Amino acid sequence: MNYHRQNRALVFMCAWNGEKTIARAIKSVLNQTRSDFTFWILNNGSTDKTDEIIKKYNKKDKRVKMLYLPVNNIVNAINLSKALRTESSAKYHFTIDADDEYVHDFFEVSSRFMDENKLDIVTCGYDVIDEQTGSIIKTRIPEDTFTVSGKQFQSDFIKYRPFTPFTWGKLYRNSQILLSDYILDEYNLCSKSVLNYNEYKYSSDSIYNLFLFRKARRIGVLGKSVYKYYQSQQQISSRVSLKEKVSEYYELYLTTRRYLESYGKVSKFNCDYLYAIYLSTIDDSMRFIFERKDVSPEERLELIKWIFSRDETPLLFSGIFDPEFKNLAARNKFLEENIKKILLEFGQTKEVNEIVNLLKGLKNERLC
Description:
CATH superfamily of the largest domain: Spore Coat Polysaccharide Biosynthesis Protein SpsA, Chain A
């Protein structure tokens, strides 16, 4: 019997060695106040007790359906998820990571908001929680609940953009508009490898999500936190190579720029916002570079040089931007702090001095 054709939503989870957290995630879905969904859980080659836990919930609740891949392969897992959505006649779909949880009324509140406003995507606020302590690191929610359509996709970009990354914490309408790939060539937002998941990249889900937002006619943002994202040291440490992670931040920035440009001429304010995003990606990249002491100094210095030699970087540090963007106003301080960190981390060598001089040359004298 094809259960997901009888239900209103398709929920998908991919789990690999999640024995410590998966029960929390599963219960948060099964305890939703709206219960008409089918919950597909993929055991993606786990070697711990993940399979036992999934089987336990499968026996207890007929909404839970089991899937299995013998080898941990995120590409196959994503393609399987996409195939399920394509074949499903469910009205909605949403996903959850095996170490996170939804607030109990996520599905009910999001689906009502979607139906009342004829939305293609609903996204929401979320809490970032320390896995070890259970304390909230930060909460990100909009000031109010709002919808976006037409020209607002560009004019209100700064309002909804913080809620576009990642596939979790979102309800999608299972429509042909979102499932079809026809719009890719028209807008050229991302490479076919990202769209078709032929290879997994660090920011693939965020890039693909921008692709879905570009296809949507109307989206909505809930002004409340209904997702709990748990952050652990394992997530922060290496799951992909340092070079891959740093280059993916750059690709996400480029995709974001192309996304805005696809709506027409980009306003001066949005151009400034894009530079603020770009500086934020550099900040994150530098933090990862300093953290990854398992990577050789030569490789890390090469990445730093690449970051500050890219075509966009001189424009970032020489431009005059809207004072609303605090990180842009503090660009010189950012350079000075990173110069100190580079010297402290790598000492004074010919290569280090070249990089230090490169950063000093970017300093904006008008901000002094």
